[in-house]
Design goal:
- By secondary structure, the chain is mainly alpha-helical.
- It contains seven helices and no strands.
- α3 runs parallel beside α5 and α5 runs antiparallel to α6.
- It is globular.
């Protein structure tokens, strides 16, 4: 699937699962939706492109700002945030240097990235984790497999569609509409 589809599905998934769980302030809801989009995009930092690098380091920057905003209250919280940022930066660099649909498309990476996000933004990391998981799920439908069980070298896929085909366009459009309805429905 294409990046815009992953961002839209990550956002829609996070909003669908978390948006109705509790009453959210509009800023928290938009932040959660953004974390879902970032989670939906970040597994593709393993693509060899300038866009992948931009997504990786923009994600670190966003989480750094969010973590700094949230954790300036104590030195322990700030130390945890800094450790999470270091871990996230290392994971992004590893992802940038790995094969596509390898490490970053694994359950191990989902756990590691989500743990780093948790160290940075606390419980808000669930939005990120949902977006990340949505990426792994929808990539299963592609014709090219992903290494869900990395470091085991077996690729998994359902071989149902091409990454840039009609299913991608339909899924991206539906997720965008669903995100808009879920987000604006909760804010208004």
């Amino acid at each position: 699937m294409l990046g815009k589809t992953h961002a839209a599905v990550g956002t829609a998934s996070a909003l669908l699962i978390m948006g109705g769980a509790v009453a959210h302030h509009p800023v928290s809801l938009v932040t959660g939706a953004t974390l879902g989009a970032i989670g939906g995009l970040i597994p593709d930092i393993d693509l060899n492109s300038k866009h992948a690098k931009a997504v990786g380091f923009s994600s670190v920057l966003f989480l750094a700002l969010k973590g700094a905003d949230k954790n300036l209250t104590s030195s322990l919280a700030m130390s945890t945030t800094i450790a999470g940022l270091i871990a996230l930066t290392v994971l992004v660099v590893l992802g940038l240097n790995s094969n596509h649909r390898g490490f970053t498309h694994s359950i191990l990476a989902l756990m590691l990235f989500s743990t780093a996000a948790y160290a940075i933004v606390g419980n808000s990391s669930i939005w990120f984790a949902i977006g990340y998981a949505s990426h792994l799920v929808i990539d299963l439908f592609n014709k090219k497999g992903e290494s869900l069980l990395f470091p085991i070298n077996a690729k998994v896929c359902f071989n149902l569609c091409a990454a840039d085909g009609i299913i991608n366009k339909l899924l991206g459009s539906l997720a965008t509409v669903a995100s808009a309805l879920l987000l604006f429905g909760r804010i208004i």
